[in-house]
Amino acid sequence: MSDAVEEIVNLGDRSYSVVVGHGVLPHAQNMIPSSARRVAIVTQDGIPTKYIPSFAGVDVSTHIIGAGESHKTLSTIERLCREFSQAGLTRGDVVVAVGGGMVTDVAGFAAASYHRGIPVVHVATSLLAMIDAAVGGKTGVNIAEGKNLVGAYWQPHGVVCEMDALDTLPEREMRCGLGEMAKYHFIVREDLSSLSMVDRIARCVRIKADIVSADEREGGIRALLNYGHTLAHALEIATDFSIAHGEAVAVGLLYAAHLANRMGRIDEARVDEHYEVVHGLYGLRHALPNGITPDQLIIDMGRDKKAIDSITFVLDSATGLEVVTGISDTKIREALTDLMTRLG
Ligand SMILES: NC(=O)c1ccc[n+]([C@@H]2O[C@H](COP(=O)([O-])OP(=O)(O)OC[C@H]3O[C@@H](n4cnc5c(N)ncnc54)[C@H](O)[C@@H]3O)[C@@H](O)[C@H]2O)c1
User: Fold this and answer.
1) Which of 45, 77, 128 for mutating ligand 1's site (highest number of atoms within 8 Å of CB)?
2) Number of independent structural domains in the chain
3) Residue 201 lies inside a defined structural domain of this protein
């Protein structure tokens, strides 16, 4: 095995390791429970099979799910559970997800549901899954009424972040991960740019692990992980998901900075820092899609599933990020104008 960085998600007797590095697939063998006699691999056709770990001393079955959000459904969960049953999986056995965030969300939910919960190990092959989706135990699927509306908290037994997999990750998917990575700079108010990619991924995992350990079920600080996401979700809805999630988050981070500035929470220099990280460090220079109006975005921001009685934002301040509600339409509009003016 090559050099690896290991981070622990501390959750008492459900604590687990996240191993980050090149050539780290063999760590998956140590993450499966000793009771396992069968391993059910859940993956997608587009993911090279070289990222599927080998397991000794167990029977292995492979289960392919479709790519794209349209396959992130309850019918996929039913099919997987039926296949697990046909493969003879029992409560002592294990599911191993090999893929991006869609695979870890779906396989994680299938594992949480099958026999009322069997162990799952995630092998993250996309940047977004490594620094976000595979860590923290949120699993779920979409229904017609909304994304990720049905799911469960189900912590994995371990996570392997195989960085060799980034070599084949399509560029657009890489940008999705970079959008989320930019977010972590502002959560901890640190410049992560001096770190190597392995250390930067490990640092993002550590930040997420600390947040999850403190607030597993999003009663408080876990909501800070939604920084930049209020406008991002609205942009995804307004463009019928033609804008990639990470591209939308990149724009959403800049908007959140303008809004915080309009509310007197941060100064212009801090707004500029947002542009330096998003545009400069991560090269995420996305304009607002053509034809999108402030009115449309305000309506779509109100549809966010986290909005309770007003649009909810995570906003920066001198002391860090906070969840903020009850912002006037005027400020929301002014900040949209600031964003549109600056993006040109
Ligand atoms: N559970 C959470 O906490 C959480 C957090 C953020 C996002 N998510 C979810 O994650 C999903 C997005 O994840 P994603 O950005 O990884 O997208 P994805 O899983 O849909 O993967 C994108 C595409 O890249 C392919 N791919 C993945 N790894 C590859 C590799 N190494 N080489 C070649 N192709 C590869 C996939 O097959 C897919 O076609 C969404 O469904 C989102 O809701 C979950």
Assistant:
1) 128
2) 2
3) no
Same domain, 99 and 237: no
**Which DSSP state fits 217?**
T
Q: Which of 102, 127, 236 to mutate for ligand 1's pocket (most ligand atoms within 8 Å of CB)?
A: 102
- Residue 31 covered by a domain: yes
Atom of ligand 1 nearest to the CA of 44: 37
- C-alpha span between 71 and 77 (Å, rounded): 10
Whether residue 180 lies inside any domain: the answer is no
* pLDDT mean across residues, the chain: 94
Model pTM score? 0.94
Q: pLDDT (tens digit, 9 = 90+) per residue, 120-167?
A: 999 999 999 999 999 999 999 999 888 889 999 999 999 999 999 999
Q: Are strands 158-162 and 138-143 parallel, antiparallel or unpaired?
A: unpaired
Q: Is 338 in the pocket of ligand 1 (CB under 6 A)?
A: no
Taking CA atoms, 107 is separated from 34, 98, 166, in Å, by 20, 9, 21
Would the CB of 321 count as within 6 Å of ligand 1? no
Task: Please identify every residue annotated as catalytic.
Answer: 116, 138, 180, 208, 218, 222, 226, 229, 233, 245
CA distances from 118 to 123, 160, 169, 282 (A): 16, 18, 29, 38
Instruction: Say how many Å lie between the CA of residue 169 and the centre of ligand 1.
Output: 10
Same domain, 260 and 134: no
Check which CATH number belongs to the domain holding 293 and give it.
1.20.1090.10
79 occurs within a structural domain:
yes
pLDDT for the residue numbered 306: 59
What per-residue confidence (pLDDT) applies to 304?
Answer: 62
Domain hosting residue 330, numbered range: 219-343
